[in-house]
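Today's session is about reading a structure prediction critically. Students often jump straight to the picture, but the first step is always the sequence itself: look for stretches that repeat, for charged clusters, for runs of hydrophobic residues. Only then move on to the predicted structure, which in these notes is written as discrete structure tokens rather than atom positions. Here is the chain we will use throughout the hour.
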Amino acid sequence: MRCAIYTRVSTDEQAKSEYSSLDRQREVCIAYIDIHREQGWHLVQVYEDGGYSGKDLHRPGLQELVQDLSEGKIDAIVTYKIDRISRSLKDFYDFWEVLKDNNVTFASATQHFDTSDSTGMLMLNILLSFAQFEREVTRERTLSKMAGRAEKGLWNGGYVPIGFDYTADTQELRPSEQEAPIVSFLFQRLIETKSPSLVANEANSLGYRTRERVVVTRDGTSKSVGGNRFDEDSVKAIIQNPLYKGFIRYDGKLFPGNHLPIVDPETWNAANRACGRMRADDGVRFRDDHVHLLKGIAKCGVCGTSMTPYPAGKKDKAGKPYLYYACTSVTQDGSASTCPVRSVPAREFESLIKSVLIDLGSDSAVLQACVDAANREALVSVEELQERQRRNHDEIARLTTGIRRIIEIMKETDLLGPDVRAEYKQLIQEKERLSTAVEKLQMDIDRRQKKVLDVEVIRRSLVDFERLVNLLPVQDQKELFQLLLREVKVHPFDPERESPPDATAGALATKVRSKWYRVEITLHQLPGVGLGEQVRGGSSDKRGSGSPTWTRTRNTAVNSRVLYH
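Below is the predicted structure for this chain, in token form.
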């Protein structure tokens, strides 16, 4: 029986010690295999994962082991203890299913049981349960220790933030002589400018960079990370960190820290108010109360980057902050960015996209175009699969003829040469492979044919969208947008110099506040259907102050509010 040994330790220190736990596990497992040598057991391979936790199965040594046993290279796996494979009951059951599928035996060298009988399976379940229980207890103890450290004002570890040095003897942070002035500069300039991107540009122009550190990877190599230019996000992360005012944050609560602050609490609070991210109640958490429906969907059509939510720091007469979707190049480079799109007002832009989606359900031309495009793609793909299906059936018929020919030879001849036997075996295997492929193709064909749509199905779906979208909580509206919209690209548009978007471009021209944009909307479920020649702009029929309004399409032959190609 071909045996493989698997060993694992949880930390790099154990893996690199002179006589590590890996060595001990390997020796015990080799001795276990030697005991069973009379039964034909012999070692063929050792798989190791040094410095990997047992919380999941994503480890290079274990993945190599699974690959080899799937290829039939291994008959049994021997490990020091069962928790070397995994401490999770679910993960080990997944691993155990792989072993059963490949008829591979599992043995623990120090927990004597055999998985081939019911008693061994019972012991397996018991040991797994205790392994997972031990992991949960360790987790609870760790969290409790971290909470206790925070209450004592001690930092809980991680990467040492810029502006601080860490003293291992006292386990405390202390301001860095070189970097603390950088942090103070960021706080002071943000209070004055109220613009994180502007502050980032000023810091970069002065030669300031993020902290550079050397990290050791799991394969033992070292690499340098950090030392980058500041951007809006890195500035905000510093401003929002309560460490800089002398507090430790843990589990959403603030505790006075033992370390010296870099800025006083008044400066910290003023900078966070200028950043527009501090709550009025306790200042512990930071959030943008507006749910951005197009986050992750809106893209800059010029730069090709995402348009991220961006608060301007100012408020309108009703007290609502001005919110935008800004091109990433603008948030990072500020005024130095050459992006012509720059930003779009968030609330108005979301209202525009919502109204476009609602309009889909009331336009019969749109519905028919949706059906034609969706079904065209589905049917084309089905035809391709059916052609492959026919080729497979023809090949199966040819193989069947060959198999019958060999069977006839077998009936007439008692002794067959090795060549005939090998050909017969090869034909049987190839026929089984093709039969499996045919079954899979048929499942795929059935699935695709069920996706063929009709006008009434799409119309009901879009009418339901109009009815439900404004009744749903905002967070659910965002999820609905994520399901419907694949991408919304924003381009600059000049109505005086440019013609309305071409019908084949899948775009609309729209005016949001005082600026014109060309917007391309791509839907997930309606492939090949895009917005055609449509123009939205200022009119006397305004729906609200600052909101997008309607004009008739310039295509006089159709003269409708929405025209799809």
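Discussion point for the tutorial: The radius of gyration is 33 Å.
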